């Protein structure tokens, strides 16, 4: 959808033509879902939160200002909804404890072996996508959510910090770790043909 | 390398994410570039992290459950109807209606000031049943209107006759003695069919 069409649709929905809202958000529905699943890790919850978030976006459409990017606005609403859902669900289990860990410690890459590039065409293969998704899902939440918002949703650092309610410095540190951890998780796997079990699948995380 | 501060592997790894973001100073970037040329281990980490970002940024990495879009559209269509209408969709008819109501209310209030005079007597009381065309007597300086011949008319030399409707409009109130007696007699002899409430007289005046 081109920008002019999007702006036109936004204006119409703001004037009360709610039936046009789905057409407006359709290009972003996958990204909305990805933001929700990154935080909740449960398909049913993620879908429900994605729907709730879009209803909330519709209810608040008049608050959207043209100078903002519409996709970013949708993602931020989704992140808020997902974080609220997670807060309600969380029962002081492992992730809560993980989140308290000190972030200042250095992360040392495990494997310095040269990483042969994984070509984008490999993503056509479902098992490759599944391996990547599994590697991402194995990260602690605080790394995963930052990585998804910045590298998958392509929010900038500032927007990521705002969406998660954390500092820019925290985003940078977590992003560094997430990227390096994913690299560690995936590097050896491709070299070994991606059909052998990856290190994290053996139960031991490399960090 | 000449003239540039040497940088260690630890420092490079700590900045590698910011390097990919373009979020390092030119001098740090230059030092890191030099380091990557000479350190295959750090170069491997850089390429690996870059590869990770490129892979996950790919739209194909977002897997949504089958039927996600259809269910989202359905939910929006269903629940959008229960959303409170936005201000804009109300405003088309709400504002003129509100303005009309205010205008009508204002007119009625203004009308009451000009046609229904303040009662001239503090003994004002409801006097239903007085025929509007009935001839009554008022006198200068008095506050009540009377049945002709009433013994309680003050300033009899300055009395004048008019209809009950006119007397009410001028702010006179019925004499509690003669008028009550008259009404009792009238209701005993001819019933109430020939009478009209003062309230009706006032209402007529407002038409």
List the topology elements.
The complex is a heterodimer of chains A (207) and B (207).
Chain A: H1 3-14, H2 21-25, H3 29-40, H4 43-59, H5 70-89, H6 94-99, H7 126-137, H8 141-152, H9 157-164, H10 168-191
Helix pairs in contact in A: 3-4, 3-5, 3-8, 4-5, 5-9, 8-9, 8-10, 9-10
Chain B: H1 9-21, H2 26-38, H3 40-57, H4 68-79, H5 87-115, E1 135-139, E2 144-145, E3 159-163, H6 164-169, E4 173-174, H7 178-190, H8 198-206
Parallel strand pairs in B: 2-4
Antiparallel strand pairs in B: 1-3
Describe the structure.
- The complex is a heterodimer of chains A (207) and B (207).
- Chain A starts with a helix and ends in a 16-residue tail after the last helix.
- Chain A is globular, with a radius of gyration of 19 Å.
- In chain A, 62% of the residues lie in helices and 0% in strands.
- With 207 residues, chain A is mainly alpha-helical.
- Chain B is rod-shaped and about 125 Å long.
- Mean pLDDT of chain B is 73; it is low at 86-93, 112-126 and 190-207.
- The interface between A and B is large, with 54 and 48 residues.
Strand content of chain B: 5-15%
Total number of helices of chain A:
10
Instruction: Quickly give the structural class of chain A.
Output: mainly alpha
Outline type of chain A: globular
Helix-strand string of chain B:
HHHHHEEEHEHH
Q: What is the average per-residue confidence, as pLDDT of chain B, rounded to a whole number?
A: 73
CATH superfamily of the largest domain in chain A: Winged helix-like DNA-binding domain superfamily/Winged helix DNA-binding domain
Quote the beta fraction of chain A.
Answer: under 5%
